[in-house]
From TrEMBL:
<keyword id="KW-0675">Receptor</keyword>
<keyword id="KW-0804">Transcription</keyword>
<protein>
    <recommendedName>
        <fullName>NR LBD domain-containing protein</fullName>
    </recommendedName>
</protein>
<keyword id="KW-0805">Transcription regulation</keyword>
<dbReference type="Pfam" id="PF00104">
    <property type="entry name" value="Hormone_recep"/>
</dbReference>
<dbReference type="InterPro" id="IPR035500">
    <property type="entry name" value="NHR-like_dom_sf"/>
</dbReference>
<dbReference type="InterPro" id="IPR051152">
    <property type="entry name" value="C.elegans_Orphan_NR"/>
</dbReference>
<feature type="domain" description="NR LBD">
    <location>
        <begin position="54"/>
        <end position="329"/>
    </location>
</feature>
<dbReference type="InterPro" id="IPR000536">
    <property type="entry name" value="Nucl_hrmn_rcpt_lig-bd"/>
</dbReference>
Length: 329
């Protein structure tokens, strides 16, 4: 299988502009587009701009994650065809341990919840990467750069898949989504407490902070619920999403590494489909699964753009010791 055939983003903007040009149709203008500024900037008030920042130091968190990444892989007394199969056993073990713990329902996301969210899920991503055989042999600085750039993407897909599993078994209602390790929230009723990180109100930043649930969450969960991906497929999706993001961001040496790892796992997935499942034509199923990755990647691009604007307009009163970890938070 050629890993280069996986398309994570297409230029929908230029395509739509061409369509408008051909049809000579002018898009309707909102107040924001009329004055030439994004909608959320219209509510910016100069007296609320933050010139003094509170530093959130995540150095210890990165150090803790690096300890997982440098550990020798655990020897498992099973014979695996390839590394993708080996990762699947670790995922199955994780799901068994997770099933024994109660799920906490989160009603409000404030400072305490956010900081616990960062620590719990960054470490969970590091533990997952530590079970990726080809990844563990990389230089530590390369491993950390890939982890820091992709852990939030890993989290989003992993939690959407977990949500789909719960919805399929009718454990969670249709408006309840997993948001962190062992935690869920109702996407229609949860509350944000932003006093700890901005001088602006939740109402002013709601459209800026909260993703479009219908586009980026519900549709992906519907696909995952319908297709019920195996652990091998889910691991491949996680690998593709994370490595594609890291490769695009860093280019050069890291892009070479991510391309090489992706090619290995693409071949492993091909063997899984053709040898284990006896499927000669699996492109339709894989295309549907990749739509989930594409939606997550699209959401990440939007959030990066918003993070850039937030920095320009000093919307937040906090900054991070390693801001590259939170570009799509």
């Amino acid at each position: 299988m050629d890993s280069r055939k996986f398309q994570s983003d297409r230029d929908l903007i230029s395509n739509s502009n061409n369509y408008l040009a051909r049809g000579k149709v002018s898009p309707p203008q909102s107040l924001a587009s009329f004055v030439g500024r994004p909608e959320f900037i219209l509510c910016c008030e100069p007296d609320k701009i933050s010139h003094v920042k509170t530093l959130i130091d995540v150095s210890d968190l990165i150090y803790k994650a690096s300890s997982y990444l440098q550990e020798d892989p655990i020897l498992i007394p099973y014979k695996f065809e390839n590394s993708l199969e080996k990762m699947t056993l670790a995922m199955e073990d994780m799901k068994i341990r997770r099933a024994k713990k109660p799920v906490q329902f989160v009603k409000t996301i404030g400072k305490a919840e956010s900081l616990i969210f960062y620590e719990t899920n960054f470490i969970a991503a590091a533990q997952w990467f530590s079970g990726f055989p080809e990844f563990t042999s990389l230089d530590m600085n390369v491993k950390l750069e890939i982890l820091k750039s992709s852990w939030l993407l890993w989290l989003r897909l992993e939690k959407l898949a977990e949500t789909a599993d719960y919805h399929r078994r009718h454990v969670l209602g249709s408006d309840v989504f997993m948001c962190s390790e062992g935690a869920c929230l109702n996407v229609e009723t949860f509350e944000l407490d932003l006093k700890w990180c901005t001088n602006y109100s939740v109402e002013q930043l709601r459209n800026f902070m909260i993703p479009v649930i219908e586009d980026h969450w519900r549709q992906s969960v519907a696909i995952l619920t319908e297709l019920e991906p195996s652990n091998i497929e889910l691991n491949f999706m996680l690998i593709q999403l994370c490595l594609n993001e890291a490769g695009k961001k860093f280019q050069g040496k890291i892009l070479d590494v991510t391309d090489r790892l992706m090619q290995i796992q693409a071949n492993n997935l091909h063997d899984y489909y053709t040898k284990k499942l006896k499927l000669t034509n699996y492109s339709s199923r894989l295309t549907k699964l990749m739509k989930v990755n594409q939606a997550i990647a699209a959401d990440a691009r939007e959030r990066k753009e918003k993070a850039y604007l937030a920095e320009i307009f000093n919307l937040f009163t906090v900054e991070y010791s390693h801001p590259e970890m939170f570009e799509i938070a």
